[in-house]
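JOB MANIFEST
job_type = single_chain_structure
chain_count = 1
residues = 273
[input]
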Amino acid sequence: MSNVDQFSSYISENAHSISREIVEYVVDHSESVISEEEKEMALSMYVKLLGFYSESLKNEDENFIPEHLIEWSKNNAQMQVSSEGKLSDIIVRYPLTRDIATETVTRISLDIGLSTKDTANVLKGINQILDVSLNETVFAFEELSQQSRQQLQEELISLSAPIVPIRDEVVVIPLIGYIDEDRAAFIMDTAIPKIAAMNVDYVILDFSGVLTINRHVAESLHQIGSVFRIMGINVLITGLRPELVQVAINSNIKISSANAFSTVKQALENIGQ
């Protein structure tokens, strides 16, 4: 067995104690408070990381990166995103990890009697593993964070235009907050198919909770109303404030007074008549 193989086996066999040393160093030199649960999670993660390191040392390809390292890094990012942690919480620990890992690898190399060349190679290996881990974790964190933000945005959009059945033949869409292109698109792509499946006769678009809209959104909402009418569904508009009416007028959108009411209650009374 070569000295490097002996070194690799030592890392693998003592991964837990080495990881404990790394965790204690990072905790002692970290400015943030790290809970016992976080310490145990970090210990488990470092054990796996050292396993990847040991595996890479056994491969003759100097640029060999264990496939599981990529997946491990993504899981690391996933845990951080799921716990609503910050990317900086990950990044700030890598320099500390690099410091203690370099010191530990050097000490073990001297104990085993590695040559200067072999010591340089195993140090290069630990730094390569840490570099790949950091890069993949950051990339995955950014991607997962973007997905999380997009999902949250979609949920907020759906809440801003809920479909509220009032009677068997009537539904109300209370528009809430700032109505933008995304929310108008949501109504077009999601609300219309749902309402079509409900087999209703009337849709009440209630603007009383709308803070503001622009010309493009007004045109989109007008188009949505036209789609409902083509489907044979009567569209009633409620809650239009003067400033919203002005936007519609400036957009050359004609609003029939017969289909516009101050409140949803008035619209329902009209339907009853």
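[summary]
The longest helix spans residues 116-160.
The beta strands are 164-167, 170-178, 202-212, 234-238, 260-261.
exit_status = 0
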